[in-house]
Design goal:
Elements: H1 9-16, H2 20-24, H3 32-35, H4 40-46, H5 53-61, H6 65-68, E1 74-79, H7 81-91, H8 101-109, E2 112-114, E3 127-131, E4 137-143, E5 151-154, E6 169-177, E7 181-186, E8 207-218, E9 232-233, E10 244-250, E11 263-272, E12 280-287, E13 316-321, E14 328-333, H9 335-343, E15 351-358, E16 364-367, E17 383-387, E18 390-391, E19 395-399, E20 402-404, E21 409-411, E22 417-420, E23 436-442, E24 447-451, E25 454-455, E26 461-463, H10 464-468, E27 472-476, E28 482-491, E29 495-496, E30 501-507
Parallel strand pairs: 1-7, 18-29, 20-30
Antiparallel strand pairs: 1-2, 3-4, 4-5, 5-6, 6-7, 8-10, 8-17, 9-16, 10-15, 11-14, 11-16, 11-17, 12-13, 12-15, 19-22, 21-27, 23-26, 23-28, 24-25, 24-27, 28-30
């Protein structure tokens, strides 16, 4: 339950001046007998309230101490240390002093509201709109519940405001009433961010590796190659001589952006003869890519005498368990293996071995296969889906140098930076501004990029719609005559441009 002053606060304030003992008998957020006698900045400077010490560091770095020390009737939204630590981590800073002063000032000034807003003087359900020091609207409201009385919220946007996009912040420590100011503490950063159209859900896109060939051998009577003209029968019986080895040779396709692989899955179809109850307990998949010289062999020339051997030292990629339903698709996560495989500069064709564990001594068990001689007999051949590394259809149409006054900021526009996609799209994609994405890959050396006031770090993203709605700014630190940063162009389906976009900044 939130502890607040509630309706008896005004009386407590009167009695507090004559009786400190009376105040200590009430479980309240603050000690008004102290706060109402002190100016806010003077109290913050003492560091007595260890939850908001980083706010004082911030106003010192942003050179705002003097102006916040003036006797003006204002309500200050103070981000807690928790909020500042999260901000620094997200932006890639280790301390507040690394932040751009202009960007930090703008962020803090948005949280300075003219007037006095305290919970016990507000009405439940009434959303108060104010204009902050930055000239942007900000909302503060109060709601009570059966467990919490007089709970304050910042930027709980009313339904009448269809333009502002904001996550409402619950005031975690409220009604710090100082001699000159009122403060409300939040565990995040409220920001002025215009609502943009949501990015569309992307269709499934990626690289699919189909089977180029498949076969299986066994360790007993068969010396000939069996390229899926028969099932693996009772593989891995208790009789070790009956071990079966299934093998999949997959297509070789290049991956343009290895770091962008988000997932890779092996999709395979299992057929079990339920009438003979093969009782499959698991399937083990092995990397046998290094064990076949494809200059000397083909899928059809692999026999038991020349097949890749699977021993205890063979790399086990993954074990699939729970193989119990007949005629069913299964999916196995191979993300880590695929990333490692594509990281090899001298990689061999992707060749996987599979060994089933079957407890029964009779019965049939097989995977979906590609029949080499008769496609009509192929049964749901296995495949690997790799998601993420697509070459995007987007092209850059504007990348003009940004002009910025030294130590000031500039709003990015589409005349400075924009991309377009083809219409119609060969991939059947659509490219409104919200589906065109920029991801920061190299930060400015003498500035910072912000979105809705918050600094963006490496891999921070904004859309072209954010640019259109003036949500993205560049703030200059004021040290150099030029600056630059690098972006990766992306589309909503996960496609990326092959080359990074270098944005030049001319400092005037």
């Amino acid at each position: 339950m939130k502890i607040t002053f509630k309706r008896y606060i005004p009386l407590l304030l009167i009695f507090a001046l004559s009786s400190c003992e009376l105040m200590t008998s009430y479980p309240i957020d603050t000690t008004p007998n102290i706060l109402v006698r002190e100016k806010m900045v003077d109290f913050l400077k003492t560091g007595k309230d260890t939850i908001i010490t980083m706010y004082y560091e911030a106003i010192v770095h942003a050179e705002m101490v003097e102006e916040l020390s003036r006797d003006t009737t204002e309500t200050i939204i103070i981000p807690s240390n928790t909020a500042f630590k999260a901000l620094l981590k997200e932006a890639g800073y280790t301390s507040i002093t690394e932040m751009n002063k202009g960007a930090l000032r703008a962020l803090l000034e948005y949280m300075i509201i003219p007037g006095r807003y305290v919970s016990y003087e507000m009405t439940d359900g009434i959303v108060n709109q104010a204009i902050s020091r930055t000239g942007d609207r900000i909302y503060i409201s109060r709601n009570s519940s059966s467990t919490d009385g007089y709970v304050l919220y910042v930027n709980k946007v009313p339904s009448t405001d269809t333009e502002l996009s904001a996550t409402p912040l619950n005031v975690s420590r409220q009604d710090l009433v100082f001699k000159d100011k009122v403060a409300q503490v939040v565990d995040g950063f409220p920001r002025f961010l215009l609502k943009i159209p949501a990015t569309d859900n992307a269709p499934a896109m990626g690289v699919r590796l189909n089977i180029e060939g498949d076969t299986h051998t066994w360790a007993s009577a068969a010396g000939a190659n069996v390229y899926w003209s028969a099932a693996i029968q009772a593989g891995s019986r208790t009789d070790g001589s009956q071990n079966r080895t299934g093998m999949f040779l997959f297509e070789q396709k290049s991956i343009s952006q290895l770091s962008e692989i988000s997932s890779a899955t092996l999709n395979f179809y299992v057929i079990a003869n339920a009438t003979k109850d093969p009782q499959v307990s698991s399937l083990k998949f092995y990397d046998i890519s290094e064990q076949i010289d494809w200059n000397a062999y083909t899928i059809k020339t692999i026999t038991k005498a020349f097949k890749p051997s699977i021993t205890d030292t063979t790399t086990l990629i993954k074990e699939a368990t729970g193989i119990s339903m007949p005629a069913t698709w299964y999916q196995l996560d191979l993300t880590d293996f695929i990333k490692a495989y594509y990281a090899k500069l001298d990689r061999k064709p992707l060749f996987l071995g599979v060994r089933p564990s079957i407890k029964a001594t009779t019965g049939n068990f097989t995977f979906g296969w590609k029949h080499e001689d008769d496609p009509s007999k192929s049964v749901n051949p296995a495949y690997i889906d790799i998601n993420g590394p697509l070459d995007s259809e987007l092209t850059v149409v504007n990348n003009s140098p940004i002009s910025c006054v030294k130590g000031k900021n500039v709003i990015l526009t589409k005349e400075m930076l924009s991309m377009v996609g083809p219409d119609p799209s060969p991939l059947n994609l659509i490219y409104p501004d919200q589906n065109i994405i920029y991801q920061i890959k190299e930060l400015p050396t003498d500035g910072v990029i912000t979105k809705g006031g918050l600094p963006l770090g490496i891999d921070g993203r904004f859309t072209q719609a954010d640019i259109e709605y003036k949500n993205v700014k560049y703030f200059n630190n004021g040290n150099n005559a030029s600056d630059s940063f690098k972006l990766q162009g992306r589309d909503y389906a996960g496609g990326t441009l092959k080359n990074l976009i270098t944005v030049q900044v001319n400092i005037q």
